[in-house]
From TrEMBL:
<dbReference type="InterPro" id="IPR036238">
    <property type="entry name" value="Transglutaminase_C_sf"/>
</dbReference>
<protein>
    <submittedName>
        <fullName>TGM1 glutamyltransferase</fullName>
    </submittedName>
</protein>
<dbReference type="InterPro" id="IPR013783">
    <property type="entry name" value="Ig-like_fold"/>
</dbReference>
<dbReference type="InterPro" id="IPR050779">
    <property type="entry name" value="Transglutaminase"/>
</dbReference>
<dbReference type="GO" id="GO:0003810">
    <property type="term" value="F:protein-glutamine gamma-glutamyltransferase activity"/>
</dbReference>
<keyword id="KW-0808">Transferase</keyword>
């Protein structure tokens, strides 16, 4: 058989951003025609996008029945500013999680 050939393609953020929505993955499909046989080959690949890590820090003592301040830190991995972003804290004992606009 002939040697394998590698072809590299780059998908920019501007190209895939409109199709991501609230998903954390891309589904890529590559297709090729074999001229000699007329055969079409296709392969799909699901790529999970890396989401930023959240760092949570307790800023004061955690006392039962009292509010506890928490700092949330994350790095925006996108080449554009975030707009309309909301953080929501959920957990045991939190009766009604409050969304915080960022």
């Amino acid at each position: 058989p002939p040697p394998a050939e590698t072809v590299t393609m780059t998908v920019t953020y501007a190209e895939y951003q409109p199709h991501v929505g609230d998903q954390d993955a891309l589904k890529l499909t590559v297709a090729g025609d074999i001229q000699e046989t007329g055969q079409v080959l296709a392969k799909e690949l699901r790529v999970r996008l890396v989401t930023p890590e959240l760092t949570l820090t307790l800023l004061g003592p955690a006392v039962v029945g009292q509010e506890t301040p928490i700092q949330v830190v994350f790095q925006n991995p996108l080449p554009e500013a975030l707009t309309g972003t909301t953080l929501r804290m959920e957990g045991a004992g939190i009766a009604c999680p409050k969304p915080v606009s960022v």
